[in-house]
């Protein structure tokens, strides 16, 4: 298993931005993590990526968008000359417009230079500006890179009409910014109150001021998954953080993450991570490598 810096850089708690290039290994196994990535495909005739269940054969200059907590794999690609931009989920959640953009493009994973030459070239130029600043000695390089990341997202959003046909079947354009703000308010409440007794979908729908059925439909469009699946992902994100940073019992960690019992905690953890919580803790203690990044 490749434990290179590319996928194990744990920057979420200390930084909003990271960048990587230069790995000589052409593949990286299926995995997921809490931060997002933008990959600028490097040179060569073979560049094959997989996001969720879809496999993409790409050409140099194409862009791959990996949103936080999405399964992805590099099957065969030139990672030495490709460029990988990593951005924290906390950064994307810091501004409503960034959240809105991320939610709208949640089902868009590839921007092809042949289909969108002007946009892809423009986004590529922004990416290379980030690279030049990130690998310089500029003391405010993170701030400058984050400003360019916002320019990247804004440029993408200015071209949303180009992607409406392909996203139309998956993204419901019928809800307003007001509804989106309510949904984001609810998800923020859940993240900050995982130990509440009642985080049921019905209660959250009442908090948002909409019907349970409408909440369910909008929630799937906004997050890309159903409510129970998303809630488990948020609980797992909290649990992995506690396993890596807190000297607590597994029972305490399960309860602090919102799981009602050790069996349910173990079942969900193994289903999503491929290992038990105790195995994850042992792996992290031995290597310092988060289990969701390899």
Care to describe what's here?
- The chain is α+β, with helices and mostly antiparallel strands and 294 residues long.
- The chain folds into 3 domains: 5-167, Sandwich (Jelly Rolls), CATH 2.60.120; 177-224; 229-293, Arc Repressor Mutant, subunit A, CATH 1.10.10.60.
- 50% of the residues lie in helices and 13% in strands.
- It is built from 13 helices and 9 strands.
- A 5-stranded antiparallel beta sheet has the order 1-8-3-6-9. A 4-stranded antiparallel beta sheet has the order 2-7-4-5, with no helix packed on it.
- A hairpin with a 2-residue loop joins β4 and β5 (54-57).
- The chain is globular and about 50 Å long.
- The chain starts with a helix and ends in a 7-residue tail after the last helix.
- Mean pLDDT is 84; it is low at 1-9, 169-173 and 287-294.
Q: Mean pLDDT, as a whole number?
A: 84
- Approximately how much helix is present in the residues? 40-55%
- By DSSP, the count of extended strands is 9
Computed Rg: 19 Å
CATH superfamily of the largest domain: Regulatory protein AraC
Low-pLDDT stretches are: 1-9, 169-173, 287-294
CATH class of the largest domain: Mainly Beta
Number of helices: 13
| Global outline | globular
């Amino acid at each position: 298993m490749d434990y290179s810096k590319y996928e194990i850089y744990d920057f979420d708690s200390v930084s909003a931005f990271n960048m990587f290039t230069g790995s000589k290994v052409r593949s990286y196994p299926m995995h997921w993590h809490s931060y997002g990535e933008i990959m600028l495909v490097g040179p060569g005739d073979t560049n094959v990526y997989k996001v969720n269940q879809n496999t993409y054969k790409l050409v140099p200059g194409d862009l791959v968008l990996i949103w936080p907590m999405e399964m992805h794999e590099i099957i065969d690609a030139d990672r030495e000359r490709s460029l990988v931009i990593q951005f924290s989920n906390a950064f994307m959640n810091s501004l409503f417009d960034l959240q809105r953009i991320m939610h709208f493009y949640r089902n868009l994973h590839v921007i092809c230079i042949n289909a969108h030459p002007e946009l892809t070239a423009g986004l590529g130029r922004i990416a290379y500006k980030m690279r030049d600043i990130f690998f310089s000695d500029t003391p405010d390089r993170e701030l400058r890179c984050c400003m360019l990341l916002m320019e990247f997202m804004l440029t993408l959003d200015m071209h949303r009409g180009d992607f409406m046909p392909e996203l139309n079947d998956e993204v419901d354009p019928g809800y307003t910014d007001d509804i989106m703000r309510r949904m984001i308010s609810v998800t923020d409440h859940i993240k900050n109150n995982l130990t509440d007794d009642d985080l049921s979908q019905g209660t959250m729908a009442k908090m948002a001021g909409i019907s349970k059925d409408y909440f369910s439909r909008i929630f799937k469009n906004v997050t890309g998954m159903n409510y129970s699946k998303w809630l488990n992902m948020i609980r797992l994100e909290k649990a992995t953080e506690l396993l890596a940073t807190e000297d607590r019992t597994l029972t305490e960690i399960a309860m602090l993450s919102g799981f009602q019992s050790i069996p349910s905690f173990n079942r969900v953890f193994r289903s999503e991570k491929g290992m038990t919580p105790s195995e994850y803790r042992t792996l992290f203690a031995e290597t310092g490598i988060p289990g969701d990044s390899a």
